[in-house]
């Protein structure tokens, strides 16, 4: 192919500068990165010849119309003279603008903001004693696609708001696609799906001004949860550190409802699903989360994509709690059909059944993360449902919403939604049909297409509904009496937290209710807190400057569940980020050693220097600068190391913005701010060389918890590693918790 093939428009601007000039030789588009390959779509819903394979949607070297006609110009509309009106006959202009006009699809009514990743699930086989599901047999590997999300915010909202997170997994199994559509909190707001539009309307922005975005700190949310006290348990988890995860990688996931596993002989076991992150369960602190929303609203999305791109693949172990499938569907007095209740792990241990590794980023956000369609009714033989009234309503909602969100009933043909098992569904036609179905008899039974498709028996993998006995009953709109207890599990959760976690929870309630204008809503929520825990209620009431109400129900004795606390354990440090602050006074050989030691542990060191480029030492070594004093902010780092004096440049201009306000410590004000935030947020801080004196000038005393000062990287880096393993140095500030 020669450059002569290229049509050059007379008068079109061209750059003389070679590095910014438009390439003139046709080139193949860049291939996807090796870690961005999606699962192969093998569904026979494509044409048998592969001619309609969607991967051929964009190919060739030349710009074309949607019909494949080569184009020589896409920057100028066809006009009657260069200063004249645009002509209607410009078919390329009309096609280009029309397609653009229709680029958006409706965002999800909830869970609109999300981030996805591909991966693989490897089964340990431990569940195969109680389920015939093929993908849970020993050593079976199944491709997966996971989408994490916030619930309340719009598609462009910030990541680190206080909210529940969605955790949806699509398993492309040989027996059909199985979806586990869960959350990062094991209980839900409501017991019956009929209330779902109400809780969502209450939690979404107010309909008059459409504010606040992605927040629960407003009147309508607290109005609802204080009136529907079944929401109190979920709300308590939201107000705890679980509402502001450090990363999608450091969240637990829960199936919430009780499901039913079925073995080859038809025997059933009730189960609850859990995802346990290998990275540990960690959260942000509230002030940090708020700062992130301004500085980097894509914080969680970026963190997930970066870690996968860097090869630090996040992993979760899938586990199950098992319960006998008894007639009343309860376990230790807990109604397993009530989705506002969880079963403490101390009562039923979580048994690991497989490992999920996320190892590839999506190639295209819209095609994959936006168009993926999950559904709790996507089941495989060996996994069945229960009569949880919330789950039952979900079974209707997902397919229904996807028909409007994805523009018709054929969205299962989109590459991300295509099963990897053969599909022969007899569904025909409809909007966006891409399959070219052969045959004349899409009905059953038929004789014209040779009787195809045939019905499967259980022996060849048919899904058979468990013949559960349905209680003889009357038709009524009523909950069972076992659903009436709305407070004991909220109390159990709160009493299981450590004092520092309780303090955070108290602060969160005080903040959120402090944002409510209506006094009667605050009073009603305080009443609910009084019924949950007197100490919690008193602390929140004090913060609000309101009287402490008396409880109207007796507090039950609850056995705490230490497993719900996130503190007290050591976790792997791989994937955590350490900021190394340096300047001309730093010893570069120490920095090089620190970077090497951190890399060896899978930790990401980022060098922060006064300006971009490289830091060069006296012996000519050079280390690339990744963040400058201007672009760095504490929120990006799990730990900070000071290696230089970080005094302001002699020619520093007077500070104008808040970030560069003077704090009188003699340090560059931006570094001063970074240190004080990291200190307040209980992050590990290390120093050596001139960095030690710099820390002191910032008022950070090395006797305080979580400060590692030493001669150099050989002593400081291991100490920082230890501190990182515990996530934060919470002991830095005394915690009181709520009085019993
Ligand atoms: Fe959902 N939920 N939900 N939900 N849900 C949706 O489906 C719904 C519930 C969850 O990443 C919607 O395609 C009802 C519990 C996740 O694409 C919608 C009820 C749990 C996601 C819907 C519930 C969830 C959704 C919106 C009460 C945790 C994001 C867009 C009966 C176990 C999936 C869509 C993704 C999405 C309905 C309750 C988790 C409207 C009616 C409980 C993670 O269909």
UniProtKB/TrEMBL annotation:
Q: Which cofactor does it need?
A: heme
Q: Which InterPro entries match?
A: Catalase, Catalase_AS, Catalase_clade2, Catalase_clade2_helical, Catalase_core, Catalase_haem_BS, Catalase_immune_responsive, Catalase_large_C
**Enzyme class at the top of the EC tree:** oxidoreductase
User: What UniProt keywords are attached to this protein's entry?
Assistant: Heme, Hydrogen peroxide, Iron, Metal-binding, Oxidoreductase, Peroxidase
Q: Does the keyword Oxidoreductase apply?
A: yes
Signal among the record's keywords? no
Where in the numbering of this chain does the Catalase core domain appear? Answer: 64-452
TM segments? none
Q: Which reaction does it catalyse?
A: 2 H2O2 = O2 + 2 H2O
According to its UniProt record, the EC number is 1.11.1.6
Q: Where is this region: Disordered?
A: 1-59
| Protein family (similarity comment) | Belongs to the catalase family. HPII subfamily.
Q: What does this protein do?
A: Decomposes hydrogen peroxide into water and oxygen; serves to protect cells from the toxic effects of hydrogen peroxide.
Q: What is this protein called?
A: Catalase
Natural source organism: Paeniglutamicibacter antarcticus
Its taxonomic path starts at: Bacteria, Bacillati, Actinomycetota, Actinomycetes, Micrococcales
- GN (gene name): catB_2
């Amino acid at each position: 192919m020669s450059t002569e093939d290229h049509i050059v428009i007379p008068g079109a601007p061209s750059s003389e500068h070679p590095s910014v000039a438009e390439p003139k030789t046709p080139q193949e588009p860049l291939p996807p990165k090796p870690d961005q390959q999606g699962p192969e779509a093998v569904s026979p819903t494509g044409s048998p010849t592969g001619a309609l394979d969607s991967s051929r949607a964009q190919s060739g070297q030349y710009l074309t119309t949607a019909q494949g006609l080569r184009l020589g110009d896409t920057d100028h509309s066809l006009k009657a003279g260069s200063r004249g009106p645009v002509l209607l006959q410009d078919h390329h202009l009309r096609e280009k603008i029309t397609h653009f006009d229709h680029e958006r699809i409706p965002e999800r009514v909830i869970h609109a903001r999300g981030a996805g990743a591909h991966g693989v699930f490897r089964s340990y086989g431990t569940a195969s004693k109680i389920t015939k599901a093929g993908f849970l047999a020993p050593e079976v590997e199944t491709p997966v696609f996971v989408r994490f999300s916030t619930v309340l915010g719009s598609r462009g909202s910030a990541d680190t708001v206080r909210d529940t997170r969605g955790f949806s997994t699509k398993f492309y199994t040989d027996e059909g696609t199985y979806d586990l559509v869960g959350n990062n909190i094991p209980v839900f707001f409501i017991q019956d799906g009929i209330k779902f539009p109400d809780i969502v309307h209450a939690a979404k922005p107010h309909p008059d001004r459409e504010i606040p975005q992605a927040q629960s700190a407003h009147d309508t949310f607290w109005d609802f949860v204080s009136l529907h006290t079944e929401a109190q348990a979920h709300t308590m988890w939201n107000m705890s550190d679980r509402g502001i995860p450090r990363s999608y990688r450091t969240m637990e996931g829960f199936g919430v409802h009780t499901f039913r596993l079925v073995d080859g002989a038809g025997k059933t076991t009730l189960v609850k699903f859990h995802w346990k992150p290998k990275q540990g369960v960690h959260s942000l602190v509230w002030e940090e989360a708020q700062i992130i929303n301004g500085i980097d609203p894509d914080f969680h999305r970026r963190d997930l994509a970066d870690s996968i791109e860097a090869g630090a693949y996040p992993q979760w172990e899938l586990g199950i709690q098992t319960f006998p499938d008894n007639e009343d569907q309860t376990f230790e007095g807990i109604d397993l059909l009530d989705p506002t209740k969880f079963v403490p792990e101390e009562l039923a241990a979580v048994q690991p059944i497989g490992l999920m590794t996320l190892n590839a980023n999506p190639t295209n956000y819209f095609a994959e993360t936006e168009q993926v369609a999950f559904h709790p009714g996507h089941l495989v033989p060996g996994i069945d449902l229960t009569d949880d009234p919330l789950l039952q309503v979900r079974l209707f909602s997902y397919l229904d919403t996807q028909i409007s969100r994805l523009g018709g009933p054929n969205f299962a043909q989109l590459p991300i939604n295509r099963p990897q098992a053969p599909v022969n569904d007899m569904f025909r036609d409809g909007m966006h049909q891409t399959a070219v179905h052969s045959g004349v008899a899409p009905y059953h039974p038929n004789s014209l297409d040779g009787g195809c498709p045939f019905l499967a028996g259980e022996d060849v993998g048919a899904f058979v509904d468990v013949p559960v006995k349905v209680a003889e009953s009357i038709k009524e709109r009523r909950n069972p009496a076992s659903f009436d207890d709305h407070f004991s599990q909220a109390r159990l959760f709160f009493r299981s937290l450590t004092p520092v976690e309780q303090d955070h929870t108290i602060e969160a309630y005080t903040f959120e209710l402090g944002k409510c204008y209506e006094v009667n809503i605050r009073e009603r929520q305080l009443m609910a807190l009084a019924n949950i825990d007197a100490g919690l209620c008193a602390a929140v009431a004090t913060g609000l400057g309101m009287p402490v109400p008396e409880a109207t129900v007796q507090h039950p004795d609850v056995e705490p569940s230490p497993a719900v606390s996130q503190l007290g354990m050591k976790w792997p440090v791989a994937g955590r980020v350490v900021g190394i602050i340096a300047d001309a006074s730093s010893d570069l050989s120490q920095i090089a050693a620190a970077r090497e030691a951190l890399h060896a542990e899978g930790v990401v060191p980022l060098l922060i220097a006064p300006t971009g480029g490289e830091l060069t030492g006296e012996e000519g070594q050079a280390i690339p600068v990744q963040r400058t004093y201007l672009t760095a902010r504490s929120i990006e780092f799990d730990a900070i190391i000071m290696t230089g004096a970080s005094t302001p440049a002699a020619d520093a201009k007077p500070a104008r913005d808040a970030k560069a306000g003077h704090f009188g410590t003699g340090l560059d004000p931006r570094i001063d701010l970074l240190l004080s935030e990291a200190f307040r947020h209980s992050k590990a801080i290390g120093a050596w060389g001139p960095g030690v004196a710099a820390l002191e000038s910032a008022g950070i005393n090395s006797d305080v918890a979580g400060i590692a000062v030493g001669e150099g990287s050989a002593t400081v880096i291991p100490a920082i590693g230890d501190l990182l393993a515990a996530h934060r140095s919470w002991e830095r500030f005394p915690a009181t918790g709520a009085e019993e």
